[in-house]
């Protein structure tokens, strides 16, 4: 492995140097008007998504003939280490697509351009959902923007529900209704099939929504834990009850689901729903014949708010050491605000943040369902959004791992509730200390 | 002590010293070796030294490294429960998989070593898994085979087992599916055993048969003792290989080492620290500790080998 990694690395370096020297002539950039050159854009995702990006590039070059764009594409699991290696070698692409959880990490290590001076000056964000740009603030400055708005949601196989004489739960249904409803589905279908999947072990999934219904965030602004032992205890017991009632599957079925859409319990035929980020709808729909539809995560009627909040999905930042920053900003403005650019991307990367663009585009049925859902959260149900620096503090990845371990340990019956809870808080504290 | 090989070496050394033009021959030799020297300096030794330096820093890939002394090593041994967990998983894997694999390889080798017709066909057939098993495709297949709806469970249900678990998703069993995969890679030690078996002089078996020894005493009194150097070689090779196992766990656990870190091999943990958490300094320290661990295990084996490995070099 070592040798291969090294070879890849040196190949990347050589390629990077070639690319940098190739666009050396156009250094300085001129917003696409005077000077020209080459702009590299890194993006993760499916082949379909890459095709859309190529189309956006063509549309941009048609308007700015002096600039050519090249795509640094990679699949999701090969993306971030490649990009980080390029940053380390000083030759990363000027425009970098970033995972939600990676933006703050890159920003804290000064890999990203501070965008404040460009906002309203080359990069128009005036039509974005209010407050959304501020989510990308790390240490006081905006260092990333999201290509699309997103929120937590729950998608159901509505064909199945109809065949059982049931209906998609209305947004705002309660946890109690969720329990009965899910257990009913399990009973009605029979066999190894459950009303809901169980993603209780994932910190960034619906746990955050449930927690916010209690008025709490997973992390405080200073990077400490925002919840206490009683919260985690209640969370573990809630899901134990769902499993005991037959509403949610046993531990080993849940453990078999990997991180991909096609290994989700819904697609593998073990559950009627998938509780995740709403923008997964179109990709999930492509994997099944059954019709999928979005609704909210259950809500606590006695709680504070719905717990749902608008957040970014596919983020983008500019590489701090890139040349041609002005051109990169101009390209972003095109991709966000120009119908010729944003129109091609559509809902691929989330709901278009420019609300006028969002409202003027046409979507597929699944995309429209997603857009309507995001509008519902943005304009009616949503609570205050959380800046991503707070959602992903320096200790994030360790705490995320410890959270999964704590929940799974209990789910497999290897620890009691209190053992799991105590161990989590002890290890989380030490991870937070280590990250400081 | 002076075997024929050593005598030969003496002769050639003397010849090379006296022969004219030897020096230019040497030069050519070194010239042909340069690609290899360049390789070892720039692709192996260089990166290794750099990683040794990084192991004393907080290198995080995105920014410049800072020297932090032995902090990484201290943290590893005092605070990092996942380090100990992954070490435990790896040791369990090595200590179970390597002996099982070697026993299996030896049994198959002995079975194949009876002058069967079409031996080369069998040998190729049994060697095949060794070529395949390390591959991503087989790991993906393994995931299917031992999954909840996999063929293993189909068979188990057929023979009446009620509700068999998902073998790859149960923390108690997941590691054993990886061990099984390792054992299935018995081909390369088997081929080495076969070569070793061919070296055992047939007259030993004939003489002992005349003295009335049966197959089983022959195996334990002749075959096994004379095979010990080959067994030793295989142990060392497989031990080093097993400590570095990565692919199978990475694919089968979806890159996580789960469920519940039950398949978190040391190398997988190292990879996660390096390439998902970007803690290159810490990962470098992990790598160096692994080097030491493998070194210690290999050294122990060499020490122990004095007591059980018999070299047939004329002292009998």
How does this model look, in words?
The complex is a heterodimer of chains A (436) and B (316). Chain A is built from 18 helices and twelve strands. Chain A is α+β, with helices and mostly antiparallel strands. The two termini of chain A are 32 Å apart. Chain B is mainly alpha-helical and 316 residues long. Chain B has one domain: MetI-like (MetI-like fold). In chain B, α2 crosses α14 and α9 packs across α11 (215-243). The interface between A and B is large, with 38 and 33 residues.
List the helices and strands and how they pair.
The complex is a heterodimer of chains A (436) and B (316).
Chain A: H1 2-22, E1 37-44, H2 47-63, E2 67-74, H3 76-89, E3 95-98, H4 103-108, E4 137-138, E5 141-142, E6 145-146, E7 149-150, E8 152-157, H5 158-163, H6 175-189, H7 206-212, H8 229-244, H9 251-256, H10 265-268, E9 273-277, H11 281-285, E10 292-295, E11 311-312, E12 315-318, H12 325-337, H13 339-345, H14 355-360, H15 365-381, H16 388-391, H17 396-411, H18 417-435
Parallel strand pairs in A: 1-2, 1-3
Antiparallel strand pairs in A: 3-12, 4-5, 6-12, 7-11, 8-9, 8-10
Helix pairs in contact in A: 1-3, 2-13, 8-18, 12-13, 17-18
Chain B: H1 4-18, H2 22-54, H3 71-78, H4 81-112, H5 119-132, H6 136-145, H7 151-158, H8 174-184, H9 187-199, H10 202-210, H11 215-243, H12 247-252, H13 266-275, H14 280-308
